[in-house]
Amino acid sequence: MVTKKFVLKKIAQIFIHAFFWCGVLLFYTYFFAVNSNDFNYVLSFSLFLMPITIATSYVFIYKIIPEYFISKRYVLFGLYSLYTLIISAYLIVISVFYGLIYLSNFQYNKMAPISKSLLLVAIAVYLVVVVVSAFKLLKLNVKHTEATKKLETKILETQLKLKEQELNYLKMQIHPHFLFNTLNTLYGFALKKADETPEMILKLSNLLDYLLYQVDKPFVSLQDEINHINDYIDLEKMRFNNTLQIHFNEENIRDNIKIAPMLLLPFVENSFKHGSLNQGILIVNINLYTRKNYIFFEIENTNNANIVSEKGIGLENIKKRLDLLYKNKYTLNINNKNDLFKVNLKLITD
């Protein structure tokens, strides 16, 4: 269905082309009128050249350049260009004879001086063809650049959406995993009707608030992450009772430092889930400090070297999240030997 917009565009295009060729006719008239007072001769000769110029130009800009040059079929481009030049040169020769025979009645002296020269006539015609072709190439290049930018934008948008979906998927994995461990602990206390159960529920409530309402934010303050790590540690202290020895050292934590939510907590969770008792005690040491725009996080726990702790869902997810959120802005070293499982994380914050 032909739309009004399409029709108006075509009308505007026809008008622009007509205006341009009127300009070319004016150029021919002035060019061939040099040293000549016969306006009728000059106008008739110029009008005779117009179809030759228009046909040659349109063959180049609508056929040869788009189909052969732009598509890099250079052999065919050269071949068809040669054919076009031969035919147009033949017609230019005819135009000179037209000026001599029909406009000057075989009187060579009555011809406009420039129209006598086959070379100058050809230069005039091919100058227009070259200008038109150059403009077409420029237009195609601009169009190609715009199309490339649009494609790159779509690719970037698609990649961003995929990253967002992957992040959401990873968060969905972290949530059940984290809740499963904590609720198991709470269930055990409820069975024993322990006095610590209400406090444990309150800590869990704080963590759930963080999990449900803060984790969807791109970044939270580092202090918020620390507060919820402390809540988690308090929950684990209740579960392990006297079999846990934990040290959490914080240093130089500024309020303006931001971090992705739930980024450090899975490391802490992993140390409890996969940690092993050493002489009846689970030892966990955590150091967190900042220097300028760097965050340093170190955690180690007693562990059976024969158990590969890296298989936990939490650590696998956190590695993927680091790649998505801090690509080329972090270093992560994980070491599991000598009955100690160690994690060293260094983040660059903006």
TrEMBL record:
Sorted alphabetically, which keywords does the UniProt record give?
Kinase, Membrane, Transferase, Transmembrane, Transmembrane helix
- A molecular-function term among this protein's GO annotations: phosphorelay sensor kinase activity
Asked if the Swiss-Prot or TrEMBL record annotates the protein with the keyword Transmembrane, the reply is yes
Keyword Kinase in the entry? The reply is yes
Q: Where is the Signal transduction histidine kinase internal region domain?
A: 166-243
The protein's matches in InterPro entries, at most eight in alphabetical order, are given as: Bact_2-comp_sensor_kinase (IPR050640), HATPase_C_sf (IPR036890), Sig_transdc_His_kin_internal (IPR010559)
Query: GO CC annotation: what is one?
Result: membrane
User: TM segments?
Assistant: 12-33, 39-62, 74-98, 118-138
Q: What name has this protein been given in UniProt?
A: Histidine kinase
Q: Which organism is it from?
A: Neotamlana sedimentorum
